[in-house]
Amino acid sequence: MPYLGSEDTVRELRRHLSNPNVQSDPLRYRSSILKVIRAMSQGVDVAGLFSEMVKACATVDIVQKKLVYVFLCSYATLNPELSLLVINTLRKDCQDPNPMVRSLALRNMVNLRLPSLAEYVEQPLSAGLRDRAACVRRVAVLGWAKLHNLQPASEIDAAVVNELYGLLRDPDPVVMVNCLRALEEILKEEGGMAINKPITHHLLNRLGQLDVWGQCEVLRVLQRYRPQSESELFDILSLLDASLVSPHPPVMAATLSLFLVLCPDLPAVSFAALERVRGPLLAACGSASRETRFTALCHIQLLLRSLPGLMGAHYKRFFCGYAEPAYIKQRKMQVLVELVNDDNVAMLLDELRGYCTDVNADTAQAAISAIGERAATSHTRCTDPVTSHSAATDRCPPLSSAVVQTMRDLVWVCPQCSDTVCSALEGCEETLQDSQGRQALLWLLAVHGERVRSAPYTLEGFIDGVRGEASPGVKMELLTTTMRLFVCRPAETQDMLGRLLHHCIEEETDMCVRDQALLYYRLLRCGMEETRRVLGGRRSEPSLGVLIGRPAEPISQWASSFNTLEPLKQGAGETETTGRASPQHVTFDLDSDLSDTLNSGGFSFSPAGVQAPPLTLSLSPALSPEEFERLWTQRRLDYVCLEERIRCPAVPHCSPQSLQAAMQLVNIQTLAFTAAHASPWRVYLYTHAQQAAQEEVKVTLKQRPRDEKALQGFLSILTAVLHTLPFNTH
Amino acid sequence: MTKHFASTIAAMISQVFILSSQGDHLIYKDFRGEAGSDVVGVFYEKVTALTGDQPPVVMNHGDLHFVHVRQGGLYWVATTTADSSPFTLIEFLNRLAALVKDYCGSLCEKSVQMNFALIYELLDEVVDYGYIQTTSSDVLKNFIQTEAVCSKPFSLFDLSNVGLFGAETQQSKVAPSSAATRPVQSSREQGGKSEIFVDVIERMSVVIGSNGVVMKADVEGEIRVKCFMPSCSEMRIGLNEEFSIGKSQIRGYGAAVRVDECSFHQAVRLDEFSSSRILRLCPSPGEQTVMQYQLSDELPSAPPFRLYPTIERDSGGRLLMYLKLRCDLLPRSAAINVCVTIPVPRGSVSVSQELSSPDQSAELKLQSRAIEWRIPRFPGGTQLSALFKLEAPALGPAPLMEVGPVVLAFELPHLTVTGLQIRFLRLSPVQPGPSQRWIRYVTHSDSYVIRV
């Protein structure tokens, strides 16, 4: 058939449909209607054929009827007057002896979505509820829900609601489940249908007769039920035990969320339930459908937040398959990293190392970051793969950049491995393509420059190319690096430092870079000793390394997002921030450098905040909200109460989630926060045995027992964390 | 803190649509009138704009969530405004694709296009107002009136000489491959011919370390029944008597067939399972998975392939790869369609090869940076070798690190790795007229990786 524009198509089809010869031949008539539907699903606007299609509705051919209904339901809202013509045919069909015709007519009557037809529809719907055939009752029950949503303002007919409650005892399981659905929709305003003890027990008893979809529906509705006694609760739980290990992932997931909702106060039961679903979840991870695999992986990540050891023995199930898509591989790597323990570390690293050469650059980069992350906790064994890999991937720009960034993060948290990293840096002369990577390399050279033989040559390359450098961040890093290197290797770097400062002060247009260059220039005039004191910042933060292992969260943290789309979506945001080798880290380094220099610029350098003795925070024992509240309101003599102001412009702009994540990294638990735009916005935090509440940027601390040093340490950590918050407006 | 009450929003599907991989609209059905049909275009734009590592399964457009699966090269999309269960939606879409496959015979753009009326009819019965009503083909067969249109007219005489999954035919022993592409409904007018297929399909994923140690070996298996019987009230499937589940339960001295975990379809009755390993079920027309099982780490036999690589750089800067591949299957079985993928270093330009027989082939795919070595048939107990000389003028400092891991893809027809067998297949009542029962075994490689 030649290509026709949509108007031509419609004209052609109309000619066919109104041709009496076609109309008299059922097969030809049906095939013309087929053409209309085909055009419709291809996106052609065939609304103009409405009146022809209305005529085609009056037929005994069920297939033709179904096709016409598909058309009418799509376009009825555009032609309410013409639709009135259909209603008579439909009402007649509702009397048809064939139950299939009856259910079809009843369903489509409401699917026309015309409020004006409501009065014609109610009577057949009422009759439908009492029909002999289950398929008609199924349609009629849902019909009431549709009708209600068509006229949301109208009164709820109590008789209908009662009848629907009655139909919960219908012998047909689908009718029963549809009743649940309809009642939930009709009674939405009142918070859904009543879930009392008799209804709950009736539903539970019939669970066995339902198919997968029905079971999920019932399990979901039951989440609102609160058992009256503990023994009743345990009766329900034992009834549900079989569904917990159902081979159908939807049923398993729905049952687990019901478990978690029913017993929030019985952590032992919840943990036992998590153990029970391990098998089915792992099976879903090996499912033939990628999407099911992905969903299962995302939910396993949730479970691991509370039970980090849950999958320890099964780490091999998370090895990536060769042909799996990148998004599954990345999730698997995220899980693998969580599962590392002393027994499997060698095996896991070997596996992760295998992914580093993946053809997909993103996957390879994620693998390198994963190794780096692991390296932070069990250093020596992990540095080798990263460093030896850096040699291998020199020629591949994105990879090499990832390697350098990973090395930077690694050196920051575990100084032990700096030797290995330094030896790897010797060979790293290739130009890195992205500014993140260049910044990381410069930072590494600055901190460990005295041990890298080729450092001045690498730096010289950067300084020669400074005119072509676009990123101000790299230029600033370059300034700092050259200064630091000058302090420890003056003979080799004096000349290039001069050139760099000259360029930055005389030719640079970016204010920040120029200011920093001026600052360094003045600093140099203050003498070498002063310069060394200012520039000799910290090279590593070993205490972070200890803190990096995430503490187990209470189940309630994620229970509400289990079996929702939430865990599947998070990935996108998460991989963007963590996958690109922690950009916060860079800003943090930059900030601390800057504040060091700024302070010294005014000759009032006070190291108190930054160089406080390291304080280790821990989250155990966990505090319950009630306990926290009791401690907070209690006024006792051995408490120290302190108010401190921390200047942090990022706080009002960051989301509670990112604040919470940042706090968690240093083992400060966020217990509660007020609603997003409340002013003042309060966050209640606790850690170890210290409690703090934070009011915008005012911190109120209560501590027991009194310990001035620990208090200062805590404050400095809090300040540091607040400064790492990404400055984004939410 | 306020107690968090469970949301009461149901798993409602707002729309369902099917798109071809080029974004053509094949099927579009709106159930709740919550969003217009323009979101179809939005979905396609979003899904094609994703980079490789972004998870595509769930996407947002305002309040609307798109959940989709890919089956048969098509996008099967459901939209929802509520925060529904992803397990339910994905399982539903997979089930819908399976239903369409059952009813249309095969799953591809063409069959969906030709059977759109049938698919609309199916959707109408399967989902009402966004709520899943039933996906059982037993129930649906009473409602579906449209006949499937086959892209090729189905004929039982068209016993092409390629068997199931490309296995070679041993005349009467192997089922016709057309079985896979037969619509269930056609049994009605085709009359007499009633058939039932029981497939045991296993997928293995293996990782072998560079020192030859098996680091991981997993098998996921399933028994699938495809039924084209007009009247079959009950069937009994007998598995190996020594079949055992779990680690502790090994019975007798014989070569026990063991799996770690096993789950059954809801409709399977297991009253004879513990005593004599018999599954009883009433098959509904179309395809269903009656049993799924997994085995981790302890394969009853050696992994089917071993690789002995020697890789070196010659004086001319070329990379020489000498690969010996051994097939450890029993001599009477063979692997078919073996494809060995060897990732090569960046900067490789061309390859010259010496293969041991003319039916093999090898080529360098620059796109995926790998050599693909294809072996159409690889009998058990034999060994093949290949020499690849790789021209790479600009090799990195450590090119050997960029070689590997080698990946094998293959099929093992008439074979299950776990050793699971079907002893017998009985139908009751005894079928009137001719009926055929087929039992087929196949093992696929899910991911077979050998480190070098």
Automatic annotation (TrEMBL), chain A:
It is found in: Endomembrane system. Belongs to the adaptor complexes large subunit family. The keyword Transport applies. GO terms for biological process: intracellular protein transport; vesicle-mediated transport. The lineage of its organism: Eukaryota, Metazoa, Chordata, Craniata, Vertebrata. This is Beta-adaptin appendage C-terminal subdomain domain-containing protein. SUPFAM superfamilies: ARM repeat (SSF48371). It holds the Pfam family B2-adapt-app_C. Residues 615-723 form the Beta-adaptin appendage C-terminal subdomain domain. InterPro entries: AP_beta (IPR026739), ARM-like (IPR011989), ARM-type_fold (IPR016024), B-adaptin_app_sub_C (IPR015151), Clathrin/coatomer_adapt-like_N (IPR002553), TBP_dom_sf (IPR012295). The keyword Nucleus does not apply. It is a peripheral membrane protein. Keywords: Membrane, Protein transport, Transport. One of its GO terms (cellular component) is clathrin adaptor complex.
Automatic annotation (TrEMBL), chain B:
This is AP-4 complex subunit mu-1. The keyword Membrane applies. It comes from the Eukaryota. It is found in: Early endosome; Golgi apparatus, trans-Golgi network membrane; Membrane, Coated pit. Residues 193-451 form the MHD domain. PROSITE patterns: MHD (PS51072). InterPro entries: Adaptor_comp_med_subunit (IPR050431), AP2_Mu_C_sf (IPR036168), AP_mu_sigma_su (IPR022775), Clathrin_mu (IPR001392), Longin-like_dom_sf (IPR011012), MHD (IPR028565). Belongs to the adaptor complexes medium subunit family. SUPFAM superfamilies: Second domain of Mu2 adaptin subunit (ap50) of ap2 adaptor, SNARE-like. GO terms for cellular component: clathrin adaptor complex; clathrin-coated pit; early endosome; Golgi apparatus.
